[in-house]
Amino acid sequence: MRKIWESDKWYDVLRYWVDFTTRSSFSHLEISGRENIPADGSIMYAPNHCAALMDPLMILLIRHESVAFAARFDIFRNPKIASVLRWLRILPLARERDGLKEVAGNYESFGQIVECMDHMVPFCIFSEGTHRAQRGMLPVKKGIFRISKMALDANGKKVYIVPVGIDYEYFFREGGRAAIRIGKSIELGEYFASRTGCSENEVYRSLCTDLREELLSLIGRIPERRHDRLVLRSLVSLLSLPLFVACIVPAAPIWLPEVLIVSRLKDKAWTHTVSFALRLLLPVFVPFYLLFNRLLNLYRDLLEDLRG
Question: Which residues pair with 72 in a beta bridge?
């Protein structure tokens, strides 16, 4: 079985289409703070989590390099799905509610994460432990620090926790603006050394607080949409209607299944992910869908402003 950190030709080739599809999900995407990623140690990305599978896809945009991820244990129950997830460099991590037997199996994943970081392949664990499509953050879980400490103790290399703030203008529809902001990293060995009088649990609690504060400083910063130029926007909307109508049919293989699938979802945080998957699988219809969606958002925003 291929190691989680080993390169794969087809994975590397697929990444170009995946990254393009992710970028095209937004009218504007800002990536800032790459200079904050250290070059002299192992990297553990610690992002906020607000849009299901779209969030790890955003992490892949930081740099065109391999990144491995952790995901909840239950999606690995099917062996075929588990095989695909492993090929995508995703490892299972069980939670207490999954049962003691499954939690005990985490140690196998821990070992693979440590090995991955030893080979200088960045790993990513979402710091809140779950996702929710809202502004702000849930409390940070200390598991990310415990696993990083294992890598520090086992490999003898510097381990950096790198905060990543992910912002979306819209949670429940495609398009809009998005931002990926990399914050100041935490060098784990140095952090522990600076708190020699504290217990390990106290250090972990302090790390949770510091990481959460840093992440909160990185998110919620997409400026509000402009509400002016109503006359010009109304004219553009009117003139673009024939183009919008012309795109409806060739864009339908993407937008129609998207509407049907999303309408049945209990967790609407998967909205971005559903659209991404359809565009990834149906590339021939993507240009029509992108234009259709941009114009649709133009009309929606204009109507909201006129009502206001």
Answer: 93
Q: Are 304 and 82 in contact (CB under 8 A)?
A: no
Partners of 71 in the β-ladder = 92
Cα–Cα distances in Å, from 25 out to 20, 54, 62, 105, 136? 9, 10, 16, 36, 22
Same domain, 153 and 302: no
Q: Which residues contact 48 (CB under 8 A, 6 or more apart)?
A: 55, 126, 127, 128, 137, 164, 165, 166, 215, 218, 219
Contact between 118 and 42 under an 8 Å Cβ cutoff? The reply is yes
- Structural domain boundaries enclosing 296: 230-307
d(CA 261, CA 124): 28
Amino acid, res. 225: R
The domain that holds 33 is classified in CATH as 3.40.1130.10
For 177-211, the pLDDT digits (tens) are 999 999 999 999 999 999 988 999 999 999 999 99
Give this prediction's pTM: 0.92
Based on the structure, what is the number of domains in the chain? 2
Sign, Cα dihedral of 89, 95, 100, 106: positive
Q: Going by C-beta distance under 8 Å and a sequence separation of 6 or more, which residues neighbour residue 218?
A: 48, 163, 164, 165, 167, 181, 183
Q: Which of 114, 102, 23 is nearest to 68 (CA)?
A: 114
Q: Do 279 and 193 share a structural domain? A: no
Residues 146 and 177 in one domain: yes
- Please tell me whether residues 54 and 145 are part of one structural domain: yes
Please name which of 220, 270, 264 lies closest in space to residue 51, comparing C-alpha atoms: 270
Both tokens assigned to 147:
């696993």
Comparing C-alpha atoms, which of 210, 217, 220 is closest to residue 187?
Answer: 210
Distance of alpha carbon 270 from alpha carbon 202, whole angstroms = 35
Q: Is the dihedral of CA 301, 181, 132, 286 positive or negative?
A: positive
Encode pLDDT of 51-107 as tens digits.
889 999 999 999 999 999 999 888 888 889 999 999 999 999 987 777 777 777 788
